[in-house]
Amino acid sequence: MASIAVCPGSFDPVTNGHLDIITRGAKVFDELYVVILNNSSKNPLFSVDERIALIETVTKNLPNVKVDSFQGLLVEYAEAVKANAIIRGLRAVSDFEYEMQITSMNRVLNDEIETFFIMTKNQYSFLSSSIVKEVAKYNGNISELVPSEVEKALIEKYR
């Protein structure tokens, strides 16, 4: 049986921290679905289609990665693609409490799907899409924070 994992997020935009988690997850699982979940409480800079295109571009060297979007419960998406795992990235201890609540709820909804936490590399522990957007908005240097394709897309958005 193939091991299939789902790596959810808003990815607005995808950062080097996200890419670190995706790359490492792709080494462990046969298939990895990077899934953009539409979070109605957020006001995204990039459309879902733009985010899909950016992630597809920066993961083109990872043949077992598929990019998709979904509205609804993550567990329902995981069930639909027959995933047996969810991958979540952790930057710091402060992420853990929120992630533990989400994982506990997902386990109530389907205890057959395991959640795996991957600690981001130390160099990305401070990094978030929000910080990247804020720096890019004021023409700061983000070349170390995002893939070059994402940097170009951000520059274009803030022109």
TrEMBL record:
Principal location class: cytoplasm
State the source organism's domain of life.
Bacteria
Q: Which reaction does it catalyse?
A: (R)-4'-phosphopantetheine + ATP + H(+) = 3'-dephospho-CoA + diphosphate
Pfam families referenced in this protein's UniProt entry, alphabetically: CTP_transf_like
Q: Where is this site: Transition state stabilizer?
A: H18
- Entry-linked SUPFAM superfamilies: Nucleotidylyl transferase
List the Gene Ontology MF annotations in alphabetical order: ATP binding; pantetheine-phosphate adenylyltransferase activity
Cytidyltransferase-like domain location? 6-134
Q: Name one GO cellular component term.
A: cytoplasm
Pathway(s) it belongs to: Cofactor biosynthesis; coenzyme A biosynthesis; CoA from (R)-pantothenate: step 4/5
InterPro entries, per this entry?
Answer: Cyt_trans-like (IPR004821), PPAT (IPR001980), Rossmann-like_a/b/a_fold (IPR014729)
Q: Where found in the cell?
A: Cytoplasm
How is the quaternary structure described? Homohexamer.
Q: Which family does it belong to?
A: Belongs to the bacterial CoaD family.
Reported function: Reversibly transfers an adenylyl group from ATP to 4'-phosphopantetheine, yielding dephospho-CoA (dPCoA) and pyrophosphate.
Identify this protein by name.
Phosphopantetheine adenylyltransferase
Q: Which organism is it from?
A: Mesobacillus zeae
Q: Which gene encodes it?
A: coaD
